[in-house]
């Protein structure tokens, strides 16, 4: 643990982890809270250390929410197993090539995609209210695997909004309702977080004590968030999704316009 880290800063990081875990469990996007908190709270840490420590905390979040969804929603393994496997591989590949791809090249693209996705969901209020699968058999598995590779690679390269991209892909492409999509997204996101740690841990990039404490906040927040999503249903998850996407648009849009770093 960094020697200059005060108890106050550490407590605020744990609270940030708690809030991030809740958001991440409902619809993804906890990194919008947790990453900036780590950047501010650990000014002496390298970007790689911040990313790696964030991934460690996020593993706790996705573990807790995945288990809660698995017990209460019972997602279909015929979808989440191939989705999880290919997401893991995509994330490893993305993490390995991340250093060669400038982040600035991705931010405008992600911003445009988020605006389109948010507008699409907003203008189609019936989207994701009920499950109406668009594919069956091998075509369904192929769509799940394609989603896993693409979103997993994005998580390895850049990361912010991965859970939300999993959700909208499962809703818009495969035809799940928002609650079922969130359940499968959390399992896939757990796999991408573990995959990133497979790359980061051997590099010695993880600040273990900070990451484990933030992980405790993630764990509690994710448990509460997943139970809230299950009890409130797909309509609640849809509204939460729109709020998180809007926050991402503001955050990335401000970065493109130079309002903040």
TrEMBL record:
Q: Which InterPro entries match?
A: TM_pro_TauE-like (IPR002781), TSUP (IPR052017)
A Pfam cross-reference name: TauE
- Identify the main location: membrane
Localisation per UniProt entry: Cell membrane
Q: Classify the source by domain of life.
A: Bacteria
Name recorded for this polypeptide:
Probable membrane transporter protein
Lineage, broadest ranks: Bacteria, Bacillati, Actinomycetota, Actinomycetes, Propionibacteriales
How does this protein sit in the membrane? Multi-pass membrane protein
Give the UniProt entry's GO cellular component terms.
Answer: plasma membrane
Q: Which family does it belong to?
A: Belongs to the 4-toluene sulfonate uptake permease (TSUP) (TC 2.A.102) family.
Q: Where are the transmembrane segments?
A: 80-99, 105-123, 160-179, 191-216, 236-260
The alphabetical list of record keywords is:
Cell membrane, Membrane, Transmembrane, Transmembrane helix, Transport
The reply on keyword Transmembrane helix is yes
